[in-house]
Amino acid sequence: MDVAFVSNVVFPFVKGGAEKRIHEIGRRLADDHEVTIYGRHFWDGPKEVVHCGMRLRAVAPEVELYNDDGQRSIVEALDFAARLAPSLRSHVATHDLVVVSVFPYFPVLTAKLCTLLTDTPLVTTWHEVWGDYWDDYLGSLALGGKIVEQVTAKTPQHPVAVSGVTAEKLAEIGPRRDRIDVIPNGINLTQIRDAPLPTESFRRDGQPGFDVLFVGRLIEDKRVDVLLDAFDRVAATYDATLGVIGDGPQAAALRAQAQGLDHADRVRFLGFLDDSEDVLGHMRAARVFASVSTREGFGITYAEAMAAGCIVIAADHRSSAASEVVGDAGYLVTPVVDDVAKALGDALAGNRPTVDPMTRARQFDWDKIARQAESTYQRVVNEK
């Protein structure tokens, strides 16, 4: 096959979940297939280079992706979609299929236009479906976001969702559920196993890292406020410490909340860590990974934490795919202080889940995910 991926950002030059998925699947496909990534020019050197066996083709210059308020730039998305058109249109007939990450949405529409006069199928990868979350994200402009999302969902395509939760939400606004393939995100088991442990200890027993760890963007949906209050209830009983890795618009408020806790000295905010291996090292060192986020299209940190040997605590919530990732290999709780505190106590007391977390994590190995993607892409090509 000749596979083209479209993503405005390209891993490892920009680090994020969607671009990492393309990188991990693409470099494995490149062993047996031709792989091209159309993106912005975030790498050094010429506009077209070969990286990890994949051809990187820059169709637009590097720009800032976020506005001053921390939201993804709509202007950037529109600009990339417009600049994508000439290059993709001139090469699209050479590709057997085009795979587009759905967020931002506009490049999907550009890719569809480019494929109209060819038999090259369009595959889309849906990491989330926002729906009513647009109200919180854009406020008075939310209707525009909803319309663009719905138009994108109704565009003829071969949709792939990263979880059943995302697939169900997509089916509400676009294709039938039985037409949506589910291919989860993956993890690098070797990288997690070999990640160096932190050199500093924040634990009372002198071991590296923290007893309890959170990793993620500091936004309201992650419910770090609930985790902080729940941790405060059990910190002294289990002589535990909590580390918070990440940054975001809620950072200042959460730091202020932590300072008011009875056990504020046991909580440390590490901010955003540039090196993913530092994050994985903290997971390896932690006893418990707790993230009671109420909105997760997949939840890659849960799989990584299980692979690192953590007991995972996640939210049982209709808008989170955590249950699909964690299953019986962790604690799934209602994201309220009482329930989270109880789960923290159970986990810190050493009560293990019924399924070994590391065994559960192996099903998300990137090698398996790439084979699943290859099979799906080949089926789409054969059906055209």
Reported for the largest beta sheet, the result is: 8 strands, mixed
Number of separate helices = 15
At CATH level 2, the architecture of the largest domain is: 3-Layer(aba) Sandwich
Query: What percentage of residues falls in helices of 4 or more residues?
Result: 40-55%
Tell me how many strands there are: 14
Structural class based on helices, strands and sheet pairing = alpha/beta
Describe the strand arrangement of the main beta sheet, using strand numbers.
Answer: 3-4-2-1-5-6-7-8
Helix and strand string, N-terminal first? EHEEEHEHEHHEHEHEHEHEHEHEHEHHH
Kindly give the count of domains: 2
Please, could you describe this protein's structure?
There is one protein chain. The protein folds into 2 domains: 2-186 and 365-383, 3-Layer(aba) Sandwich (Rossmann fold); 189-364, Glycogen Phosphorylase B (Rossmann fold), CATH 3.40.50.2000. Helices cover 40% and strands 17% of the residues. The chain has helices at residues 17-29, 74-91, 106-115, 133-138, 142-154, 164-173, 189-194, 224-234, 251-259, 276-285, 300-307, 322-326, 337-348, 357-361, 366-383, and strands at 2-6, 34-41, 48-51, 54-61, 97-101, 122-126, 158-161, 181-182, 212-215, 242-245, 267-271, 288-291, 311-315, 330-333. Helix 12 links the parallel strand 13 and strand 14 (330-333). Helix 2 (74-91) runs parallel beside helix 3 and helix 8 packs across helix 13 (337-348). The model has no long low-confidence stretch (mean pLDDT 95).
